[in-house]
Amino acid sequence: MNALAQLGMVSELPSNNQASSVPVSSDDDRKDYFVEKDGEKFAGTHLLVDLWDATNLDDPEKIDRTLCEAAVAAGATILHSHFHHFTPNGGVSGVVVLAESHISIHTWPERNFAAVDIFMCGVCDPHLAIPVMQRLFQAKRLEVDEQRRGRVAI
């Protein structure tokens, strides 16, 4: 982890929502982070969010802070984050890696567009991340597609 920190790849906003002081003693004691909702059991909720006519798409530091704040608002545990700034158009690609999965983004400032991927398992609610991101990006049009990943028979 120190190598990641030296590269600036570790977020300063970790949380410990899923940390436990109780040791796991057997496979039977392990917590199942699959979700049960509406009569279905699945790995997690995956949101594909398209932000159109958006602003602030070219600042990796602001985007990093905002996506980390969005993860915390959704109840997620941040492990680390990494963002890259492209030239000459100024686009940003990056990811916040979560214990519960990830939030990733790819921006096209020249088109005022961003594609965001939010995948979370456990008790997290990825929908709570959207208003936090909207405060920064001010998208005039927001399209959200929701998928339940890893469906299993109950």
Provide an overview of this structure.
This protein is an alpha+beta fold. It has a domain at 47-143: S-adenosylmethionine decarboxylase. It is built from three helices and eight strands, in the order αβββαββββαβ. The radius of gyration is 17 Å and the shape is elongated. The relative contact order is 0.27. Residues 1-11 and 17-25 have low confidence and may be disordered. Its EC number is 4.1.1.50. Heterotetramer of two alpha and two beta chains arranged as a dimer of alpha/beta heterodimers.
**CATH topology grouping of the domain at 47-143:** S-adenosylmethionine decarboxylase
At CATH's second level, what is the architecture of the domain at 47-143? 4-Layer Sandwich
**Helix content range:** 10-25%
User: Mean of the pLDDT scores?
Assistant: 86
Given this structure, which CATH class of the domain at 47-143 is correct?
A: Alpha Beta
Which secondary-structure class do the elements indicate? alpha+beta
Strand content: 35-45%
Strand order of the largest sheet: 4-5-6-7-3-8
Query: Segments where pLDDT lies below 50 for 5+ residues?
Result: 1-11, 17-25
Helix tally?
3
Tell me the number of strands: 8
CATH superfamily of the domain at 47-143: S-adenosylmethionine decarboxylase
Please write the string of helix (H) and strand (E) elements: HEEEHEEEEHE
Based on Cα principal axes, name the global outline.
elongated
| Biggest β-sheet description | 6 strands, antiparallel
Measured between the Cα atoms of the first and last residue, the distance is 38 Å
